[in-house]
Write a structure and sequence with these properties.
9-stranded mixed beta sheet; 11 helices; globular
C-alpha cells in the first residue's frame, strides 16, 4: 500500500506538537507523502482546503492551537477530507481531557491513534498514564475490546499502539506485531506514526486497511533500524528509522510488517 502513497503523494496538513514537528514532517516525506505544518487560525482553513488529509496532535497544548484544531477539523469535515487524531496524554490532566472531549464533539475523525491509556480514556473507562506514555498493559484492559468500543463510539478507525498494535473498525480487527523496543527510547515515534497514517489515508483508499498498513510499515522500519543502528545508540537509530521509511516497499511490509487481519 505504500506504493499507492508514493503514486498519489497526498498533501498532509499537520497541527502537531512542536517537540516532534520536524521528525513528523520527515516521516511523512519518507513514505512518499507531502507535509505542511500550519497552526494559525487565520491560515488553517485555507491550508486544509488544498490538503488530502489533516492530522491533529495534542502533544503541546495551548488555547491558540486548540481553536485552530477545531477550525481545521470542521473545515476538513465539510470537504470530506479525512482527519486523524493523536490524543497525546489523554487521561493525564483535566485540560487534556477537556480538549479531547471538545475535539470529539466538534470534529468527525476518520482515524484515532493512541496508546492503551489514551484510548481507554476516550472509551470512558479507567485509564492510567505516565506523562504521555501509557501505564496500562494488556493485563489491565483488552486492546481489541477497547479499540472496537472506541470505533463504535466515534465512528473512526481506532488504532491502539503498544507491544502488539491493534486496529479496529466495523467488527474488523488487524493486529501488528512488528516494531522494536528501541522505538520507545526516542521522542516522537508515535507522532511520526500519526503523520504517516495521514499520508496513507490521504490516498482515499479504505482507511482501515491503510491505517493497518501504515502501522505495519512503521513497525517494519523499526526492525530494520534496529538491525542497522541499534548498537550505535538512539541518535543513530532515529536517523536509521527515517532511512528505513524512505526505502520501504510493499514487499518489505509484507515480509516484516507482521500484519494479520481477521
Amino acid at each position: 500500500m505504500i506504493s499507492v502513497v508514493r503514486d498519489k503523494c497526498p498533501l498532509v496538513h499537520c497541527i502537531t506538537n512542536y517537540v516532534t514537528v520536524n521528525d513528523v514532517a520527515n516521516a511523512i516525506l519518507a513514505v512518499g507523502a507531502s507535509p505542511i505544518m500550519s497552526d494559525d487560525i487565520s491560515d488553517v482553513r485555507d491550508i486544509v482546503s488544498i490538503s488530502q488529509a489533516l492530522v491533529i496532535n495534542i502533544g503541546t497544548l495551548n488555547k491558540r492551537t486548540v481553536e485552530s484544531m477545531i477550525a481545521a477539523g470542521t473545515a476538513a469535515n465539510s470537504l470530506s477530507i479525512p482527519v486523524v487524531l493523536d490524543p497525546v496524554g489523554a487521561g493525564a490532566s483535566p485540560y487534556r481531557n477537556r480538549t479531547v472531549d471538545e475535539l470529539l464533539e466538534s470534529v468527525r475523525f476518520s482515524v484515532i491513534r493512541g496508546n492503551l491509556s489514551e484510548m481507554a480514556y476516550i472509551n470512558g473507562s479507567a485509564s492510567r498514564t505516565k506523562g504521555v506514555d501509557s501505564s496500562m498493559t494488556e493485563a489491565d484492559a483488552d486492546p481489541v475490546k477497547v479499540a472496537l468500543a472506541v470505533s463504535e463510539k466515534t465512528g473512526a478507525v481506532a488504532a491502539i499502539t503498544g507491544r502488539i498494535d491493534t486496529v479496529a473498525k466495523d467488527g474488523r480487527v488487524a493486529r501488528i506485531s512488528s516494531g522494536h523496543a528501541d522505538m520507545g527510547r526516542i521522542t516522537g515515534t508515535g507522532c511520526m506514526l500519526s503523520g504517516v497514517i495521514g499520508g496513507f489515508v490521504g490516498t482515499g483508499e479504505d482507511p482501515f486497511i491503510m491505517t493497518a498498513n501504515a502501522i505495519a510499515a512503521m513497525g517494519a522500519a523499526g526492525l530494520i533500524a534496529h538491525d542497522k543502528a541499534g548498537a550505535l545508540g538512539t541518535g543513530s537509530f532515529r536517523v536509521a528509522l527515517i532511512d528505513a521509511l524512505s526505502t520501504m516497499t510493499d514487499e518489505i511490509i509484507n515480509e516484516r510488517g507482521q500484519l494479520e487481519i481477521n
